Amino acid sequence: MTPLAEDPGCAYDPAPMAPRRVVAGSVVPSPPVSHEQVMAALRQVVDPELGLSVVELGLIYGVEIRAGAVRVRMTLTSPGCPLHDAMPEWVRRAVSAIPGVDHVEMALTFDPPWSPARIRDRVGQGRS
Hints:
CATH topology: GMP Synthetase, Chain A, domain 3
Largest sheet: 3 strands, mixed
Shape: extended
Number of strands: 5
CATH architecture: 2-Layer Sandwich
Strand order of the largest sheet: 3-4-5
Helix content: 10-25%
CATH superfamily: Fe-S cluster assembly (FSCA)
Strand content: 15-25%
């Protein structure tokens, strides 16, 4: 084994750092955040019971991006949903990991009301 080489038995996988360039002693900001980047991050947030992303389930109703600040408007099944506290935090973490995102704001609604039948219909349609 080579000294200071990667250890193939180690499971640690460091998160990539946002690229930054130094020009004449100043830091050049990351490129603007795109809607596509945010949606790709949101597709990684999966409802553990249904195995579908918040995008596939149609829970995302709006994304606004302004100078490193991202506002996500989403709905949950009901105020009593067991994922009520966890899901918005998962969304916030996923979007925060995008280079150039400085702040994530969540706006939660509970409309349209989700019912088991509506979820079944949505899952039966396949992934969007």
